[in-house]
Design a protein that fits this description.
Number of helices of chain A: 5
Largest interface: A-B, 39 and 39 residues
Oligomer: homodimer
Radius of gyration of chain A: 16 Å
Strand content of chain A: 15-25%
Structural class of chain A: alpha+beta
Strand order of the largest sheet of chain A: 1-2
DNA sequence: AAACTATTTCCATGAAATGCGAAATAGATG
DNA sequence: CATCTATTTCGCATTTCATGGAAATAGTTT
């Protein structure tokens, strides 16, 4: 993971609303049923549902829509269209990578030019 | 780690300059010698040295001073006075904790009220 | 105390980000 | 095609934040 990628991910997560979205997507238990491209059943909340849980609004707000796309641009979540709806899922790999980055920083394994 | 603590840490790390400071402190190899409270020798860069590495300035700037205290307030680094100088060290435990938080998010172990 | 070093505080400025409502768009359905 | 739903784009007001210079402070040395 490059320094810029790490930077973008951390910036995306620095906003309270976006962090709450991520926490929510990490632990969702109320989902919409859907069928993936292989015919399998999977579950993922729609943008509206995410918004509902975060803000209490009944429909998705422009603000939450923006935050969702910000998280997607940072590579932290996936957004896929299902008819008129947008399904949101966390990308666990990205968070695994972030965890490794912090391990690296904690362990002092950061490459550093000497003086 | 509470959600607010995580929030503060991520916000502190969302700034490019602060992230560079952290990366630098994580991998420092050019230090100032110092004596800790038990008489042991330890090494840590001064605020000026951090600033020099980050900005190229010869003296510490108000901007870097501000960033250092921001990182300290977020619990990510330690700053201790040594005469007129301030020595800066990373708090590896904090980054270990952050790594665990991301593991938790990746694994979906986030506690979430159900509907 | 005066002079010097390292750092901090204060203040102003400009850039970027947030949040929101209204209009626009995309896809589904009658 | 008209309509309905879900989402996005746009424009705007407001806030937050990084930055930098000048003055103030803390500690050291003579």
């Amino acid at each position: 993971m490059t320094s810029e990628t790490l930077q973008r991910a951390l910036k995306a997560l620095s906003d309270p609303t976006r962090l709450r979205i991520v926490e929510f997507l990490s632990g969702v238990c109320c989902h919409t049923a859907a069928i993936d491209e292989h015919g399998g059943v999977y579950k993922a909340p729609t943008a509206s549902e995410v918004c509902c849980h975060i803000t209490g609004a009944e429909k998705i707000t422009s603000t939450v829509s923006h935050h969702l796309h910000e998280l997607e641009a940072a590579g932290l979540i996936r957004i896929e269209r299902q008819g008129t709806k947008m399904l949101c899922t966390l990308k666990p790999e990205s968070f695994e990578t972030l965890a490794q980055e912090f391990q690296r920083i904690a362990k002092g394994e950061t490459p550093n030019e000497c003086c």
